[in-house]
Amino acid sequence: MRSFRILTPRDVATAVDQLPATRGPATREDARVLAGGQDILTELKHDLIAPEALVDLSSIAGLEGHERTPDGGLRIGAMTRLVDLERDASLAGAFAVLREAAASVASPQIRTQATVGGNLCQRPRCAYYRHSHAPCIKKGGSECFAATGHNKYNAIFGGGPSYIVHPSDLAPALVALNAEAVVVGPRGERRMPLENFFTLPSEGSILRENVLGKNEVLSELIVPKPADGTVSTYLKFRERESYDFALVAVACTLRIDGSKLASASLVLGGVAPIPWRATRAEVLLANAEVGVDLVRRAAQASIEGAAPLSENGYKLPLTRNLVWKALTALGAGGAR
Amino acid sequence: MTTWNVRVNGREVSVEAPPMARVLDVLRESLGLTGSKEGCGEGECGSCTVLLDGRPTCACLVPIFQVEGRELCTVEGVAGTELDPLQRVMIEAGGVQCGACTPGIVVSLRALLDRDPRPTRAAVRESIAGNLCRCTGYERILRAVEELVGSEEADA
Ligand SMILES: Cc1cc2nc3c(=O)[nH]c(=O)nc-3n(C[C@@H](O)[C@@H](O)[C@H](O)COP(=O)(O)OP(=O)(O)OC[C@H]3O[C@@H](n4cnc5c(N)ncnc54)[C@H](O)[C@@H]3O)c2cc1C
Ligand code: FES
Ligand code: FES
Fold first, then answer.
1. Can you tell me the distance from the alpha carbon of B77 to that of B74, in angstroms, rounded to the nearest whole number?
2. Nearest residue by C-alpha to atom 47 in ligand 1
3. Could you report the predicted ipTM of this complex, rounded to two decimals?
4. Domain A235-329: which topology?
């Protein structure tokens, strides 16, 4: 590990000033943001990055904590700890998806330190990316070794030229809730739907997973007020029950009005380089009559267009069945 | 080197270390508190678990500068001059074999019991989800807690 400086700014503007001023995606050596450290410290240890400085966000007032907005939405500071979402019993109904997703992340120890911003900005877990000596395309090499090598944990949607899956559990939940991301850079603040924050390897720079410039900081998430009566859930399937990243996860919010689905949002985790909206299933669900047949068709639609690799075909039935389970649990199959 | 002020096991401590020194190394090497162990050094095994302001955390993944002015509790702080009742039942129920995971498990369980004195079996399991044990198969650890809190509760 190369030595580096620690900077502890007291406000976001100073943090932005301390990040590299030049444009373009970050290089291995550029100064980086440090939040809870549960991801980046291991990246440093394995020499995946060798920044000249770490800009620590933990002394900045106002970034930690979440609260209801006056209109019934939610504001979540980027430095909010996952344990604080997990322990907030008022995150129920439409917001249950967020609480369940937070509780599903890693272990209690990690959730004490891990932050919302760090969870959304964490780097891929693909074994080739994490291997110090594998010059994979996500680290500036020319090849995605997962495309032809071991790819049990890789993407079935949106892959190419890299086939990573986005590891965040909060991302699908917050996208399903139509959250907005607030990003602060040298020219001030910009806002965008969180859905547009994440970028496919074929769209943005292959070296990153989102639109953040190297001198930008994610400062908060704004969740708009969900319609009254919205219910939600986060289902995560993993190899180990104790703690693990998702093989497949489903974030679902929906609202039933009489015998119809007034609205439904369905976002998948563990299947693509970004939180993956199951658009075809959502179209099927919108304004449809609830019932087991609808749930079956929506579950099938959620895997249409998937392109599995040599070792991850199991993710298709897993995704379909998990979507079926989530929709049924929320009542889209009709009264049970 | 910088001087850091931290409350460790109820005592104010000033310790010299570079800002990125891991809390685990400061505890073990500067303060001689060798109860917390290093297994993986990457947040996966939990053998380094300590309480930071009462919450379990991996001492291998926290730099000392982030705990300035805060409170740490290690397994040495769980036991006073005598063993904590939790430690006694762990020994009696066979929840300790090689002992490598034990300090971390005791700290994780203590944090749970302080927050929830009568936890369900599911809550006990979740509280040690981040603590790897290669010896006991966990069952005797779960039974030890049940003995302590007097719960006959079936798996929730
Ligand atoms: C054993 C283990 C198991 C895990 N399991 C899971 C799991 O099941 N699910 C899951 O989702 N995650 C899991 N993780 C990943 C875990 O690191 C993240 O969940 C955690 O939330 C990261 O947050 P942090 O604050 O510690 O981030 P840090 O490590 O501090 O930062 C992560 C990255 O984000 C950048 N960053 C952080 N905050 C900001 C910001 N505000 N603006 C711009 N950039 C920022 C940093 O520069 C860095 O590149 C696991 C980790 C471990 C060690
Ligand atoms: S040594 Fe810290 S979690 Fe393994
Ligand atoms: S007793 Fe040996 S690892 Fe748990």
1. 5
2. A33
3. 0.95
4. Enolase-like; domain 1 (3.30.390)
